[in-house]
Amino acid sequence: MMPIEYEHLLIFGSVMSASWFLVIYFWPRMLLSVYKRALLVKGFGDGPIPVNTLYTQPKKLFAEPITSQTASSSNLMTVGVNHDTLSTAGWVDLSKGPLVLHVPDMNDRYYSVQFTDPLKNTNFAYVGTRTTGTQAGDYLITWSGWKGQVPGGMQQVSSPNKSVLLLGRVLVKSDGDVAMAYDLSKQIKLTALSQWTPGQQ
């Protein structure tokens, strides 16, 4: 028969192992939940960003990320990130149907749009210079269970579930290039497939 003190150690060890497993499993989801709330409620510090809408980091915040008043309002989006790319972000909900992501012609400028699965905190797809090139294009974002027809000339990005976190980045080459990079970032847009027409920008 096992001594009582060893039984207590065994129980303690089992509880600690289970606790660490739960923390490791749920911690990424908890962080993304906080991130989602910050995105939808505060955005880049100047108001909420509606679901299925992309919003670009203001030029003022990019130029002065630490000293600007916007950055001081507990902004999760931009303080501490790369200071050579403008950030664009949005929370996607595919429960009402697919969305079309439009990207403009970047003219060989580096950019990327990252697709993150919020349930697993993993990146499952990229649109951008290194994966799809810098030409203008439209990409159909669908849930993995969607059975519709992909419009001709459009690439499909299939999400593991109906929620997706989008994070975009557009390279800023110099101080004098901020306005051009910002204009290109603003042209990265989401449109419901039901409202999309060929050639729409």
Oligomer: single chain
How far apart are the termini?
Answer: 75 Å
Please count the beta strands (DSSP E, at least 2 residues each).
Answer: 9
β-sheet strand percentage: 25-35%
Characterize the main sheet.
5 strands, antiparallel
User: What is the number of independent domains?
Assistant: 1
Mean pLDDT: 78
Helix-and-strand structural type: alpha+beta
Describe the structure.
It is a single chain. This protein has a single domain, classed as Immunoglobulin-like (Sandwich). With 201 residues, the protein is an alpha+beta fold. It contains 3 helices and 9 strands.
Identify the notable features of this structure and list them briefly.
201 residues, alpha+beta, Immunoglobulin-like, 4-stranded mixed beta sheet, 9 strands, 26% helix
Helix and strand layout, with pairings?
Blueprint: H1 4-41, E1 55-56, H2 59-63, E2 85-93, E3 99-103, E4 111-117, E5 122-128, E6 137-143, E7 155-159, E8 163-171, H3 178-186, E9 189-192
Short description, anyone?
The chain has 201 residues and is of the alpha+beta class.
